[in-house]
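Handoff note, outgoing to incoming analyst
You'll be picking up this chain. Sequence as last confirmed:
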Amino acid sequence: MGKMAKIVGVYRAARAKETRREAEGQQFLIPNIWELHKQGNSIVNCLPFDRLCEEITTWLEGKFPLMEDYTYAQWTDDVEGSTVMYVGNPGIDLCWDEAAELFEYPQNFTKDYGLMILPIYVVFFSQFVSEDQEMPSLWELAAEWFGWGVEMPWWLWLPNNIWATDNKKFYRLLEKAGLSNVADTFRMAWHDTGTFFLDLEHQHDSYYGEDDSVYEFTVANIKKLTRLWDEARPIYDRGFQACHETCENPEMYKTIVDLLGRCIVPSEKKMTVKELKAASAENKRRTAGCPERDEEEDHDSE
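Most recent structure output, in case you need it:
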């Protein structure tokens, strides 16, 4: 009964602070706590309480990105005193297995959001592909599915530890090119927005633990999470607007990749961009194989 009382009490208090217009969205009458009878010692299958939890989680989802199913399941289980909310990144937040699936089966993902996927490929692709020989074919598969229409960028032929991206320069170039919304998409994908929700990296095995995705169901936390989402929402809207724009105008992808290519820098100061490009060309030649060079080497060996 204590679990029910807490959930009902917090919901009453939170809705009491709403304006009249907001309160009109309430679908069910909040039942008196004494009407929410337990069935024996369990709250499982208590229909009035289940309906109330459904209403509350739907209401919360309208305020900030809530993992509604996890929250609802935890509230309506038989564990007394467990009343936390699970939140998530509404942009993109892939665990290792999800990223591996993306690279192997891009067709399992929505092609309309090809721009949201592109930042993952152009920076992290080579980290998930063990053999250089596989990279061109896997890149081509994704490029065809998402409609990028560009070859695998030169820097992906390099080891990850010798190059980096100058993000500030890249965002600046995008804005100068009239692609500021695209900059927001890349910020979201790279968790570089400076906002809580869009930079949130959920620990996918910690639904029962304590991390940045788990919050106690309180009026203060509802208010806090609503404010944090209000801060992130404009970036989110602009970022996904850019996804739709590039899907309708796929020629933008080449411009974006070309601009990023101007922002690849050596990780070590002793190298230059020219040296990076030379190393990339050499690795690409070695990996792809160059018949003329191979014949020369065979002739020399004789």
